[in-house]
Amino acid sequence: MSLSTVAVGLALALDAVVGEPPTRAHPVAWFGRLVGPLDRSWTRPRLVGALAALALPIAAALAVGGLVAAVGAWQPFAGAVVGGVALFLTTSLRRLLSVAREVTALTETDMDAARAELRALAGRDAAALSPGETRSAVVESVAENLADGLVAPLGAFAALAVAAGLVLSSGSIPAGLDPAVAAVALGAAGAAWVKAVNTMDSMLGYRSKPVGWAPARLDDAVMWAPARASAVLIAVATLAPGSPVAARRWLDRVPSPNSGWPMGTVAAALDVRLVKPGVYDINADASLPTVEDAERAVGRVGLAGGLAYLGVGVLTWV
């Protein structure tokens, strides 16, 4: 078993046991405090946003990768542990599924509480949402966040760790640094970079914020492959191999160039309607999700997330 696989296994175990650290202790929240001051008026907002989109994610990647490499130079296995913790902090699955199940259950018993809790999943005005529309938002959010919050950082970790392992095994690394440690360090740096890009987009990437233009465009590019990979994982988890093909029919209804893939795949696989009022309407001929539909969607997305961990674990095994 490689050190990269150890890191992936530790990240999965921490997600299963811990779920997510408190916000005040979460490094992603710390990074958000660096991004926050950008959200104001600037004379040249697009230039500021472009420079920040270039500099801040690279700084996050260097900090994480450097820490893993430094610890790994002292003790390789300790470096893998730090890399696993870093990967855990850049991914999220259990917390996503837990909140989704909670909101789904509340749509039967307390709609005011369901609408309030939905804010933890979806950034939309929930005040007038019906129970079905609220459950639609739950299904949309778990599908989209599978790509943003898990597959993207996991994929970056795998791609860089595997590539680094192949290249660095030739000996072209700093003296004293194990190639396996270097692979973990680069993989963790890649996951941190992706998470930083996504965090900047979530904070700034709105049409009303010109400073967020570059972060949003960068996030669109970064999420291209993870969104489509997530659609495939959902299709496998739902035993509906044709669902990504069916999802193509609705892509032009979704403003994002990426989120329509996992959302449309869930809609096709479970034959449910997913609607964000005034924005998009996916599979409009079907019915809005029932409680059972939403619970099934959450369960299948959880299985898709497990498949993502399994795939990355296999890729990094050797």
TrEMBL record:
One of its GO terms (cellular component) is plasma membrane. InterPro entries: Cobalamin_biosynth_CobD/CbiB. One of its GO terms (biological process) is cobalamin biosynthetic process. Pathway: Cofactor biosynthesis; adenosylcobalamin biosynthesis. It is found in: Cell membrane. It comes from the Archaea. One of its GO terms (molecular function) is ABC-type vitamin B12 transporter activity. Keywords: Cell membrane, Cobalamin biosynthesis, Membrane, Transmembrane, Transmembrane helix. It is a multi-pass membrane protein. Pfam families: CobD_Cbib. The chain crosses the membrane at residues 47-70, 77-97, 150-168, 175-194. Converts cobyric acid to cobinamide by the addition of aminopropanol on the F carboxylic group. Belongs to the CobD/CbiB family. This is Probable cobalamin biosynthesis protein CobD. The lineage of its organism: Archaea, Methanobacteriati, Methanobacteriota, Stenosarchaea group, Halobacteria.
